Structure of NADP-dependent 3-hydroxy acid dehydrogenase YdfG:
Amino acid sequence: ASSPLLGRRVLVTGASSGIGWATARVLASHGAQVALLARRAERLTELAQEIDSAGGHALALPADVTEFGQVQTAVDRATAEFGGVDVLVNSAGIMLPGLIAEADPADWDRMVSVNLMGSMYAARAVLPGMQERGQGHIINVSSNSGRVHQPSFAAYAATKHALGAFTTILRKEVYPSRLRVTLLEPGATESELSQHADQEVLGDLLAGMGDGNGMRLMTTDDVANAILWSLTAPPHVNVGEILYTPVDQR
Ligand code: NDP
């Protein structure tokens, strides 16, 4: 009952799957109220019911992060239900690897829209309320591709590098109101992320990431626990950046 997250009001994007889903569950189990944002409404309702029946408080907010109006409406609903949003976890993202000369430029557009614009829109929507209340924490889920360069990841890495720049500047802008900002850069994690990728391209990429003996991936709970740790740092501490990868990953 003494959890530092008790009553904290959290909005998680990408909460229908993977890292966002695990993060919402972990934070709720530590007493946070969680608003769940993604497109698949039935998944969100299922998770909200699970959290509510475990004694927590969750709100399903079906929305597409590539539409600013939908993001703003979701934030307004969370604010009305909880009285405010103290924490934003931007986890919505897609990864569609491919060589520059062969990739479908429409895939680039989708990655920029979800990974970069979606995270920027959500930050834009929660920030005025956080600044007004003088407290808040924004966690942007980037990737080790936000630091490392490898073939076939040009567009994905570009979105994550851009998210890194956005996050660093966000931190500078919110410094006067003492809000906290964290950039999390996970490596290979078991989730649905790779299911949307070209499986042939992906197989070659995975083979090149470890030493060839099969890599032990991180679980979504591993990553959720890094988010929990960032959020529960003492209030005078800002966890600025975390690079977080499987031991097996190069
Ligand atoms: P998943 O595919 O399991 O989850 C992605 C989430 O994003 C889903 O909940 C999906 O929900 C949501 N999403 C996708 N498009 C939209 C959209 N237009 N509007 C709203 N929500 C959307 O992947 P992960 O959990 O692995 O990925 C989460 C984040 O972690 C991503 O930013 C990814 O880049 C990053 N990451 C993941 C790594 C990994 O190895 N798994 C490694 C490094 C970083 P829905 O489809 O219902 O909208």
The beta strands are 9-13, 33-38, 57-62, 87-90, 137-141, 180-186, 241-244. The first strand starts at residue 9 and ends at 13. The mean pLDDT is 95. The CA atoms of residues 96 and 198 lie 7 Å apart.
